[in-house]
Write a structure and sequence with these properties.
The chain is an alpha+beta fold. It folds into two domains: about 90 residues, Phosphorylase Kinase, domain 1; about 170 residues, Aminoglycoside 3'-phosphotransferase, Chain: A, domain 2 (Alpha-Beta Complex). Helices cover about 35% and strands about 20% of the residues. The chain is built from nine helices and nine strands. The longest helix is centred in the last third of the chain and has 17 residues. The radius of gyration is 20 Å and the shape is globular.
Length: about 280
């Protein structure tokens, strides 16, 4: 009989990480500029003394799975994508817990992250920025991978799409996805830079229904209607196709489902769009 080893839940925003940073510093043979540390729930980022960036991730061994957790490394092989170059990595197993640590070193970002994942006011973005976004997303969709996207850490499958939509919406329409293409799968305003466009944090990328990225960015913009409209206008071909409509419902299901925050300002515009999208799908 195989006994599973439980792994405690850890939030790296509050967890002591000094020993982890010291280990990375010794292994990469560079100084880490501790006043630049950015702490998130699953990751810690820090600038090095050689003007590069290190992203450190902690993950339970049993959650690494078949796909692995080398998203940034695999994404470095993609062509035509504006992203910081991947330079190398180090991986080690924790000596006290059944978890693995991974540190990926990349070039510095060409600009600051635009904001948090969900915006409450519109950023200033030039037409050139939108052109670069479109070029990268279009290039990404033409490439091939065996990876499966993991939005919100859940592997996206046909069953997940159907379950997510049917849990929230009713209606006589088919939820079967017809086209799967590579997607970033975590496209939001915290993972892109300006004024120079660059897309980073590639740990969740992989094949997904066409339109997932566009729908995700739209959902992150819904508190600023002009911005949400701009996303839909720029990615019109994604939203107009049937798979894009399904992805619109998929992201709306997260905003309108039982686990959503009842005071999220995005709920009402999401509800209106969901009603419109269902009507369009029922027309065929």
């Amino acid at each position: 009989m195989t006994l599973s080893v439980s792994t405690r839940s850890v939030d790296l925003r509050t967890e002591p990480v000094d020993q982890v940073l010291a280990h990375v510093e010794r292994s990469l043979q560079t100084c880490l500029e501790c006043d630049t540390v950015v702490r998130k729930r699953r990751t810690v980022g820090v600038r090095t003394g050689r003007d590069t960036w290190v992203r450190i991730e902690r993950r339970a061994i049993d959650s690494i799975g078949v796909q692995g957790w080398n998203g940034t490394e695999c994404a470095s092989r993609l062509k035509g994508i504006a992203q910081p170059a991947w330079l190398g990595c180090m991986v080690w197993q924790d000596s006290d817990e059944p978890v693995m640590w991974r540190a990926d070193e990349t070039e510095l970002l060409p600009g600051a992250p635009i904001g948090t994942a969900v915006l409450s006011e519109a950023p200033v973005l030039l037409n050139e920025w939108w052109e670069a976004l479109n070029a990268s997303l279009d290039a990404l969709a033409t490439q091939g991978t065996r990876r499966l996207a993991t939005p919100d850490t859940d592997t996206i499958t046909q069953a997940l799409v159907t379950e997510s939509i049917r849990r929230v919406f009713s209606g006589d329409f088919d939820t079967t996805v017809s086209r799967w293409v590579p997607a970033h799968a975590d496209l939001n305003w915290a993972n892109m830079t300006a004024p120079t466009f660059s897309l980073f944090d590639w740990e969740d990328w992989g094949n997904a229904p066409l339109g997932l990225d566009a729908a995700s960015l739209w959902a992150s913009s819904l508190a600023v209607q002009a911005l949400a409209h701009r996303v839909r206008r720029e990615r019109r071909s994604d939203f107009d196709c049937r798979d894009g409509k399904l992805m619109t419902l998929f992201v709306c299901s997260k905003l309108l489902g039982p686990d959503a925050h009842p005071e999220d300002p995005r709920r009402e515009p999401a509800r209106r769009m969901a009603d419109q999208t269902i009507a369009e799908l029922q027309k065929g």
